[in-house]
Design goal:
mainly alpha, two-stranded antiparallel ribbon, single chain, 190 residues, globular
Length: 190
């Protein structure tokens, strides 16, 4: 009986509850909540988010960002960026290390968005994605790749957009396996 209680307490402390979040009904709910806040936070259907990993990645070390990208995956990073404004900059930097192209539409939308700092971070991640070696799973994300390429092409062709956004968009499009499109040449060095 004591083993069953300790197992229940351990599961309550790790923050793993129902898919909609932890439900601490034991007398140690406050202890479980504080342990959960220190190490794991449960986000709806996305599952637990390891806050230690996120904190380590805030410094921008490539190894920590790659570890976070592997742990969360492309869609997990997008979900974190959409759900929590505080995690958004870290998530976008980590997206440069995530496999596939599932996160490209999100990055392309941010790159074309109103916030200049976020657009710059998104474009930096897109360029890193474009420059990486191709992987076999890239073909699984064909629709996301197409959608992201279309959004980037729109940004590259938008003469009203700042040059600081258009040039990285063109640079990324030249490196990515996007469907063939006429890229603007007004930004080329003459």
């Amino acid at each position: 009986m004591l083993a069953g209680v300790s197992t229940f307490a351990a599961c309550g402390a790790c923050g793993k509850g129902t898919p909609s979040g932890p439900k601490n009904t034991s007398a140690s709910a406050s202890t479980s909540a504080s342990v959960s806040k220190l190490t794991m936070t449960f986000y709806g259907d996305a599952g637990p988010r390891n806050l230690t990993m996120w904190t380590n990645a805030k410094d921008g070390e490539e190894e920590d960002l790659a570890t976070l990208a592997t742990h969360e995956g492309a869609i997990g990073l997008v979900a974190a960026a959409e759900e929590d404004k505080a995690l958004r900059p870290v998530a976008m930097r980590a997206m440069a290390h995530a496999r596939g192209w599932a996160h490209l539409p999100f990055l392309a939308n941010v790159a074309a968005g109103p916030d200049a700092a976020e657009a710059k971070a998104a474009l930096e991640s897109i360029i890193d994605l474009a420059a990486r070696p191709r992987r076999s799973e890239d073909q699984e994300d064909f629709e996301e790749l197409r959608e992201g390429c279309e959004k980037l092409l729109g940004l590259a062709k938008d003469v009203k957009s700042a040059r600081e956004r258009r040039v990285p968009a063109v640079r990324a499009l030249r490196m990515m396996p996007c469907p063939k499109a006429d890229l603007p040449t007004d930004l080329d060095a003459k």
